[in-house]
Amino acid sequence: MENIFLINGGKKFGNSDGRLNKTLHDVAKQTLIEMKKNVSETVIDNDYNTLDEVQKYLNADVVIYQMPAWWMGEPWIVKKYIDEVFSSSDGKFFKNDGRSSVNPTKNYGKGGLLKNKKYMFSLTWNAPIEAFNDKDGFFCGVGVDVVYMHLHKAHEFIGMSALPTFICNDVVKNPLVNEYIQNYKNHLRKVLS
User: Fold this and answer.
1) Closest listed residue to residue 127, CA positions, set 187, 69, 178
2) Nearest partner of 73 among 117, 26, 23, 127, judged by Cα
3) pLDDT digits (tens, 9 = 90+) for 87-133
4) How far apart are CA 174 and CA 53, in angstroms?
5) Which residues are CB-contacts of 43 (< 8 A; sequence separation ≥ 6)?
6) 65 pairs with which residues across the strands?
7) Cβ proximity of 41 and 21 under 8 Å
8) Which of 48, 82, 84, 168 could form a disulfide with 180 if both were Cys (CB 3.0 to 4.6 A apart)?
């Protein structure tokens, strides 16, 4: 049975109280249980033990991050979590940076040990989808994954590979919560079947 580790990176902060991210996290948990997956979870804002989190990654086949976009990226609690957990993995996530003294300019980022594991981002944005997909939009048509390239590269560094990103758009100005929930269930069933 596949082991899925859910990480909720939502936080009550500013004008957000994290309700949509909690809802989507709970939808993922319920959907995955219905799909007969083993589910573990962490709600970052409820605190965590770094070494326990390392073990959750090691036990997982797939890690799913649920998080809002704040100022064009992940909330600071998610970055802090990743910094603490990845840095505490003590040779379990990566053996080195991939380079050798024989050829120190080649293979950077190839020392990851989690090559049999996948990750997925589930994101909530106030920006409409057109801001990402239209050439004349704010993100010049590059898509959301380019905005998160740094996080994709951090996971690639430890050997993980990406599943397709899920995104809810226009969540403040035009929230369509029931549609987001159904689309997320469909996405999870598609990528984790």
Assistant:
1) 69
2) 127
3) 999 899 999 989 998 989 999 989 999 999 999 999 999 999 999 99
4) 35
5) 8, 10, 25
6) 7, 121
7) no
8) 168
